[in-house]
Design a protein that fits this description.
The protein has about 180 residues and is mainly beta. It has one helix at about 95-105, and strands spanning about 5, 10-20, 20-30, 35-45, 50-55, 60-65, 70-75, 75, 85-90, 110, 115-120, 125-130, 130-140, 140-150, 155-160, 165-170, 170-175. The longest helix has 7 residues, at about 95-105. The termini are close together.
Length: about 180
């Protein structure tokens, strides 16, 4: 069972139980004096998100996708999320593994991968534009230059041989 320690402005941990077609995890943290705890289940088919349930201590959001880029949040259509194939959690160091595995980029290839992004602590779902550029592997680990231009954020994310996040600067690092 992999686990990550949150980094920088956020203190806390995340644990993941991965099984075929499913990511199940829990993440807790404190950021800017705000304490949060989430449990999540993400169902995927071929690394394309089909559904997700994210539960906080006092709230819950359900996200459903048709696998072609159309989304519903708590049963309501969300055309602003059209074209997204991935569910990304702001409180997670591991959900970037979904687009990385789905895209299967070769070194030097770049791809846009907008995501339905669940924010903390209020579980608001927003569109997040993201770009991945596959860099040359290093020490048997794949590396991707990641950018989220609307957030002014970018870094190099390192993945292990199993395709799970190893190091995500500013977000978290694997501890187990």
């Amino acid at each position: 069972m992999p686990a990550w320690r949150h980094a920088d402005d956020r203190e806390g941990f995340e644990v993941l139980l991965e099984s075929p077609g499913r990511f199940s995890g829990q993440t807790t943290g404190v950021e800017d004096g705000v304490l949060w705890a989430l449990r999540y289940e993400i169902e995927h088919n071929g690394w394309v998100t089909e559904s997700g349930i994210v539960e906080a201590l006092a709230d819950r959001v359900r996200v459903d996708a048709d696998g072609l880029g159309a989304w519903r949040v708590d049963g309501e259509p969300r055309p602003d999320l059209d074209g997204c194939l991935d569910l990304d959690l702001e409180a997670s160091a591991c959900t970037n593994a979904l687009p990385v595995r789905r895209l299967a980029l070769e070194p030097g290839q770049r791809a846009d991968a907008p995501a339905a992004w669940v924010r903390i602590p209020d579980l608001r779902v927003e569109r997040l534009e993201q770009t991945y550029l596959r860099l040359p592997d290093e020490d048997g680990r794949s590396r991707y230059e990641y950018e989220a231009p609307d957030l002014g954020f970018g870094c190099v994310i390192v993945f292990d041989a199993d395709g799970l996040t190893r190091d995500y600067p500013g977000i978290g690092a694997r501890v187990a």
